What we know:
Blueprint: H1 3-9, H2 22-41, H3 74-88, H4 94-104, H5 108-157, H6 165-184, H7 188-193, H8 203-215, H9 233-238, E1 260-262, H10 269-276, H11 289-335, H12 340-349, H13 351-354, H14 357-373, H15 378-385, H16 394-421, H17 430-465, H18 470-474, H19 484-510, H20 518-522, H21 524-536, H22 545-559, H23 568-578, H24 581-595, H25 610-638, H26 641-666, H27 669-694, H28 716-730, H29 734-738, H30 747-779, E2 791-793, H31 795-801
Antiparallel strand pairs: 1-2
Helix pairs in contact: 2-5, 2-11, 3-4, 3-12, 4-5, 5-6, 5-11, 6-8, 6-14, 11-12, 11-14, 14-15, 16-19, 17-19, 17-24, 17-30, 19-21, 22-23, 23-25, 24-25, 25-26, 26-27, 28-30
Amino acid sequence: xxxxxxxxxxxxxxxxxxxxxxxxxxxxxxxxxxxxxxxxxxxxxxxxxxxxxxxxxxxxxxxxxxxxxxxxxxxxxxxxxxxxxxxxxxxxxxxxxxxxxxxxxxxxxxxxxxxxxxxxxxxxxxxxxxxxxxxxxxxxxxxxxxxxxxxxxxxxxxxxxxxxxxxxxxxxxxxxxxxxxxxxxxxxxxxxxxxxxxxxxxxxxxxxxxxxxxxxxxxxxxxxxxxxxxxxxxxxxxxxxxxxxxxxxxxxxxxxxxxxxxxxxxxxxxxxxxxxxxxxxxxxxxxxxxxxxxxxxxxxxxxxxxxxxxxxxxxxxxxxxxxxxxxxxxxxxxxxxxxxxxxxxxxxxxxxxxxxxxxxxxxxxxxxxxxxxxxxxxxxxxxxxxxxxxxxxxxxxxxxxxxxxxxxxxxxxxxxxxxxxxxxxxxxxxxxxxxxxxxxxxxxxxxxxxxxxxxxxxxxxxxxxxxxxxxxxxxxxxxxxxxxxxxxxxxxxxxxxxxxxxxxxxxxxxxxxxxxxxxxxxxxxxxxxxxxxxxxxxxxxxxxxxxxxxxxxxxxxxxxxxxxxxxxxxxxxxxxxxxxxxxxxxxxxxxxxxxxxxxxxxxxxxxxxxxxxxxxxxxxxxxxxxxxxxxxxxxxxxxxxxxxxxxxxxxxxxxxxxxxxxxxxxxxxxxxxxxxxxxxxxxxxxxxxxxxxxxxxxxxxxxxxxxxxxxxxxxxxxxxxxxxxxxxxxxxxxxxxxxxxxxxxxxxxxxxxxxxxxxxxxxxxxxxxxxxxxxxxxxxxxxxxxxxxxxxxxxxxxxxxx
Length: 802
């Protein structure tokens, strides 16, 4: 693989604009190489050459001729000497250094190259410096969290206190100090707040040292924070030993827990209700093992995410340094000059190449995590910190192909059976009418789910193709997210089960031996539904348990809206549910058909039941209502009026769906007019919101007219086609208002087709919605999750202690 492709593949997707623009610089060198070749072949016509648009301006074309000798020309020597002298003296950029030399030869391409090289170098260095400062501040914050954790741990393990107060203070002092030594060595703010240097150790090692401290008269602990004790002879002799504890100046006082309060990071419906009623929450420290376990898990996740960020920073530094080296070697090869050595020395001496803060901080984070979160087991700790990317398994690919082939074969067989028995035609025998009214809505439920899963698998495939970091956007745990192969495998597996059930049901009805057993043959769809629900809620670690539980958690949050804080996976799933209204109605028919016992007589009395008709309104409005409550919750928390307008969009859809349902039951002219007006308003409102706010398109003053400034797909026609298709598929509700009837399709089949069109529209919407979210993250360089920390320090108490 060429370096350019490898460089792009190794980029952090959200930081791609902060990387060195290797592609642009490489194109400049290619242009320089083409010009030098033309200049050598026809030097008299070089003055008439014009620059391309990518080079911004025209140049005369008189650059230095190629020297075939191995000895550098005087100009090359002068260029290299100037660069070396500038680097040694900390001089200006390469552009200013090369200008007087190259202008003499009118080498404007090279000037443009070095000017852009300087800009890219400064951009990379400044971005790296800012990110290093961020992680240093986060390290200082983690220092204080580890202080509280160790003190909390000691309190839990010794609830009755210590026999001697001085020993208690010594124990707390050593525990707290050992937890933060690794990070405080590289964080100035932490070093100022705690002037002590300790090696990280486990609680057991600390307890051994406490016994030594209790018997030693040479070590003195002081609660005062502004007094430093001079080092004793024994302390000085212990400096530099890796497994020794140097109690130097200021031990952590016992009051470390007095200025700390627990953060209520786990939000529940109960806590939300208390917050709305302004009920004071108890934030006192309860030193229980349950709370200790929660605190340790939270800090463990925080350390994993922090280490992940450090790895990205280290990769950023390495890849950019390597890119500068590659591009300068290409320049030397094309021009036969020797400018790379001096420039790379400048790179090595810069903050990008010389700062080792990230590397040292990574080592200290590893040491802290291994000792305090993996019981000093380095292999276990590093496996958690350096989670490997999920590898594609051959058995998944093989099983996917097998299920896909079976699904296609069953689909062909099903089409032939339907065509032979004329099941979809309006005018047929009574028994066929019963099948379409009874069985078809039951099996269509699984068809809606399979189609939605296929669309989602296609979304994942194209997100990966265009490097959309969907795993980070949805908050999937690294190594557990499903790829498009796994989703295709699940969807085709369910498709095989559903189509096999349909064919078996038709076969049982056609067989004279089983035709009389109405109840048994009608139970096939119910058996399939029970099997799917059992797999979904299966507690065993099979069939992607983590993904199933993640889905169930988001689904529960949607149902309980607005009692949970709204995150992107929650409202994204709620949007998916709004496109599955017909599936919810099919599920309602499941409950009615089998609950009322209609399956025994092969008759459908549900539509004559008032309770069933009332639930048609409720079932259709529930997904939109959940989404409306989520918007209301975000409006209350974020004070963003756009969330209020978004909520109005879903409320208008609730009205439109309810009116259309009423029209389908009453069939009156007044209901028809009201349904058309409400549906038209909701469709226009929703379409405008989709294109402008969810997709970020239709921007008048963007670089790409009527699109947006940044596009992942290089073909603009795709975006215009998607917008037109979104509008057309939004109008599928016209079938319910205008009451279209096709002689070659049954009403149930037509309703199913319209529902499938809405699912397809949602699948298209998904790609551009997540693309827009990804580009927003890129614009803000947002590449990491914010992990809530368990402790909150009271700054006023800390100032009083100081």
